[in-house]
Amino acid sequence: MKEILAVSLFFSKSLLKERATAIFVILAVVMIAIALGLSDINIARRFKLLEDVLLTSQMFLLHIAALFYAFEFLQKERTLGLFVLPLSAGMSRGRYLVSKFITLTIMVMSIFFSFLALDAVILYFIEKEITYMLFWQLFLYALSALVLGFSIIFFSNLVSLMNSVIYAVALFFIGNGLDEFYIYAKHISKDALMQYIASLLFYTVPNYSIFDKQAEVVNRAYISTEQFYLYPVLYFFALLFLIFSASYLKYRTKVLRFGE
Amino acid sequence: MILLGHNGAGKSTFINYLLGFYTKMEDHPFLREFEPHLPKIEKKDIGYAPEAALLDLNMSAGDYFKMISILRGVENYDSTELLRRVALKVDPDTPIKKYSKGMKQRLLLAVALLGEPTTLVLDEPTSGLDPFGREEIETLLISLKEKHRFIISTHSLELAMALEEEIWILREGKIEFKGYVSDISELKRLLFKFRPERIR
To answer: Helix, strand, or coil here: A40?
Structure first.
């Protein structure tokens, strides 16, 4: 564990020094300013629009951050051979792979916590209450962003880096519309082919819509505890396990090239 | 062990195979030839220095020492002393982006020396350096030969002779010569003898 942590912290420190990290936080502040400008407009509920703009922009930024850090790390790994020194010093491939996943987690969670701190202060001053549900939704977006980043790491074992990003982003878009598609296939169309496609997608594409309860959150609508707290977290860990296992199977025998 | 040979002879492939970057024979056509010659060395006994271009410019010498010391299980080390051994006069916290190419190569040597490994594995340590930088690194390597064994790929015949290690000459993935030579002219003659057809 000590080895994994040392390598993860080394990689994270390097990524944190990238200018993009500061840009993500600055963009979040800009979006907060825009959201504050809209805070007087009441649609259905006071502050609904403010919360909507905040969550949407930060959801977007979290996913962009995950995509950027995964891409930047993998790019450096290929050109600079980041794996060379850890592996030549006796670290196993499995442990090195774990440290890649942990590095991405540290980076996305750093962005998440900085957003959380900003939101907590701003919303407390405006709404005069601690909006736990909003914070939990932001955390679910961070998990969704991590799934996107992990998918890029997984695909990078099989295809070029650019294609890895394309495949992962394509899955993200499909996965975001899965809930609606399942409802359409099972309850509206009821066509056998549609239902077959729905069940095929269910087992092959990560269901990103599980992490999105924004509409219910900003409308203060009822969400069951299981749907809001339990299922997304369980689903995330199940996906993480699957993505890591599949990546490990490929990575343990992969030819490791660098300087490309 | 000094690995000599033309570009594409397989020197870097041999080192990468030794370090475990290839796992299956099908990964590279040279591996079957190299397999019986591969020295059995524990990874913890290896200090590896790749090419200087492979350092992360966002980081510092201190960051590299910290990570590698944990991986090698070295509890106590002195960053300043390590830098002094490779004649690198910088603060351990100076970002690597401020280093020259020669300084980066020295830093890699310092990282390789951390924990006093018995074998130093170096892949073309003077590649891309100007004559002054090259001489500095070669002098440094020669000063280390008393305490360490070398597995080094190089095009420098002077360095190969000065290190007094066994010489291996590779040609298109085959180890054509293994042994010691008495002087540089004999080494030159051998290298020309084992140059590939396309160069002839």
So the answer is: coil
Contact B21 A2 (CB under 8 A): no
Q: Give me the residue spans of the domains in chain A.
A: 2-251
Q: Which of A59, A237, A225 is nearest to A142 (CA)?
A: A59
Measured CA to CA, the distance from residue A100 to residue A216 in angstroms comes to: 34
DSSP label at residue B124: S
Domains of chain B: 1-41+118-200 (3.40.50.300), 57-116 (no CATH)
- ipTM above threshold 0.85: no
Query: What gap in Å lies between CA A216 and CA A200, rounded to an integer?
Result: 28
HSE toward the beta carbon, residue A172, CA cutoff 13 A: 23
Q: Which chain A residues contact residue B70 at CB under 8 A?
A: 2-3, 6
Sheet strand arrangement including B174-179 = B46-49, B119-123, B149-153, B2-5, B167-171, B174-179
Q: How far are the Cα atoms of A19, A139, A154 from residue A241, in angstroms, in the given order?
A: 31, 19, 12
| CB-based contact B71 A90, cutoff 8 Å | yes
Q: Which residues pair with B47 in a beta bridge?
A: B120
Whether B87 shows a pLDDT value over 70: the answer reads yes
pTM value is 0.86
Strand runs labelled E in A115-167: none
Contact A3 B24 (CB under 8 A): no
Phi, psi of B149 (to 5 degrees): -90, 155
User: B22-53: per-residue pLDDT in tens?
Assistant: 888 888 888 888 878 888 888 778 888 887 66
Q: In this structure, which amino acid lies at residue A63?
A: H
Q: Which residues of B touch A91 (CB under 8 A)?
A: 71
Return the exposure string of A178-208: e unless at least 16 CB atoms fall within 10 Å of the residue's CB, then b. beebbeebeeeeeeeebeeebeebeeebbbb
- Cβ burial B63-78 (10 Å sphere, 16+ → b, else e): bbbbbbbbbbebeebe
For residue B50, list chain A residues with Cβ-Cβ distance below 8 A: 81, 84-85, 258
What pLDDT is stored for residue A143 in this prediction?
A: 95
